[in-house]
Write a structure and sequence with these properties.
alpha/beta, Glutaredoxin, 8 helices
Length: 262
């Protein structure tokens, strides 16, 4: 799915960049690079969750390192197709990725800061969810389940999505809302990358992607406003909902973990 869009040797430079969804030269400042790094970490998590949900039971476990390695290979192939058209064989890359998928990488989940995260604060606040939300993983309209965990993350903290996912109970629905204070530039960049990635995941994995995870691009800040969270780059805020009421709140580093373990 990824390789079919690579530019051909006969494409001119502009057509090749468009065909390959290239962002070369688009986000070349410090903020843009930081955003791309965070988006790529989130992409690796989503690919890993899909891989974890489809493998044999004996292979169950975290597969984020494997997903990062696969994305590194694919991004490298895309970069070479753009800068050295005609180099390499995409069928060989596909074969390499097939072998990578079975690579036994040790992949433990043990962030050193989580034991020191403060517990979520008890609350009893009314909850009025906004309308017209779309789950990027399914591509379908979604709502916020009345019993769930909602994590609001700024573009500098997208990697923290995994903290809520790993801490949540198997029956929990986790919604990750991505916010930005710069929707015209940073928000558009995140939307471009994430919608492209999730569209590919849906075509490959179908409903096998982790069914209890929702990813919402909160461009308008509606979800952030509903939870009382800011929309800055470093936003990291989470709430736990029970029967349509906010029963716990957490802010700052580890907020998703704190709310999910409440």
């Amino acid at each position: 799915m990824w390789l079919e869009r690579l530019p051909l040797a006969v494409d001119d430079a502009a057509a090749g960049k468009l065909r390959g969804r290239s962002l070369t030269g688009v986000a070349d400042d410090e903020r843009g690079r930081a955003t791309l790094a965070q988006v790529t970490r989130l992409e690796a998590l989503l690919l890993a969750l899909a891989l974890e949900s489809t493998g044999p039971a004996r292979e169950a476990g975290r597969r984020v390192r494997l997903a990062e390695l696969i994305l590194t290979t694919l991004h490298g192939a895309a970069h070479l197709a753009e800068t050295a058209p005609g180099f390499g064989d995409p069928f060989d890359v596909a074969t390499a990725c097939r072998h990578l998928a079975g690579l036994p990488l040790a992949d433990d989940w043990d962030p050193p800061h989580l034991p020191y995260v403060a517990a979520a604060r008890p609350a009893h606040d009314p909850w009025t969810p906004p309308d017209d939300l779309t789950d990027e993983l399914s591509g379908l309209p979604t709502d916020i389940a009345p019993d769930s965990v909602l994590v609001v993350l700024g573009t500098d903290r997208l990697e923290a999505a995994e903290e809520a996912v790993r801490a949540a109970h198997p029956t929990d629905v986790v919604t990750v809302a991505l916010v930005t204070d710069d929707p015209a530039e940073t928000g558009a960049l995140v939307r471009l990358r994430l919608t492209d990635h999730t569209t590919t995941l849906r075509r490959v994995f179908g409903p096998a992607i982790r069914p209890r995870l929702r990813v919402v691009l909160d461009d308008s800040g509606a979800l952030a406003t509903a939870t009382g969270a800011p929309t800055s780059r470093d936003t990291e805020s989470a709430v736990r909902l029970e029967a349509g009421t906010i029963i716990a709140r957490a802010d700052g580093r580890g907020a998703g973990h704190a709310a999910a373990t409440r």
